[in-house]
Amino acid sequence: MAKMKMCDKGHNYDPKKHSSCPFCAVPGLDVRPARPGAEDDTVTVGRTDPAAPDVDKDATVRRGIVDWGIDPVVGWLVCVEGADRGRDYRIRSERNFIGRSEKMNICIHGDDIISRENHAIISFNPRNNSFKLSLGESRGLLYLNHEEVDVPTILKPYDVIELGRTKLIFVPLCGERFQWE
């Protein structure tokens, strides 16, 4: 049985399946109409919680964090085979490092064939709304749709990525039909 975690509001959830409480909203996230009287129009998203941690002024941060106070999701990986089968991983703008370590942007637990750090990289280029898959600094191999990846390769919706004993399906959010602005 999985060890459950309790959030500040008393909800129990499985931390191996969720990075934060799935029952709570993101603290301090304010979603409101972009302009007064436009309730059915576009929305503006931003951080309003004064208790939310400030970004270190010397740290390098992604554009979305600076502009909106959040790092927006641009797509997902979904594990369809391997120890984390059924789990999803959020892809953020720019470079996302994949490995087993908790330090990685995308941490895949339970597959000891995947390198701890930098086994692979998925990048999203916000200028042209494209995703690429690249081999990291690991000795391990990386496959895209059963073909070995040895140069950065464009990802298309529902491509299958294989590393270690894990298979992931790529699901984009951003592209021709939607972009964060």
Helices, strands, pairings?
Blueprint: E1 5-6, E2 12-13, E3 29-33, E4 43-47, H1 63-68, E5 73-81, E6 88-92, E7 94-99, E8 106-107, E9 120-125, E10 130-135, E11 143-144, E12 147-148, E13 153-154, E14 160-163, E15 166-172
Parallel strand pairs: 7-8
Antiparallel strand pairs: 1-2, 3-4, 5-6, 5-15, 7-9, 9-10, 10-13, 11-12, 11-14, 14-15
Please give a handful of descriptors for the protein shown.
181 residues, globular, five-stranded mixed sheet, mainly beta
Mass-distribution shape = globular
Structure annotation, total helices: 1
Order of helices and strands: EEEEHEEEEEEEEEEE
Distance N to C terminus: 42 Å
Can you describe this structure?
By secondary structure, the protein is mainly beta. The protein has one helix at 63-68, and strands at residues 5-6, 12-13, 29-33, 43-47, 73-81, 88-92, 94-99, 106-107, 120-125, 130-135, 143-144, 147-148, 153-154, 160-163, 166-172. The strands form 4 sheets. It has a 6-stranded antiparallel sheet with strand order 6-5-15-14-11-12, with no helix packed on it. Strands 8-7-9-10-13 form a 5-stranded mixed sheet, with no helix packed on it. A hairpin with a 5-residue loop joins strand 1 (5-6) and strand 2. The chain is globular, with a radius of gyration of 18 Å.
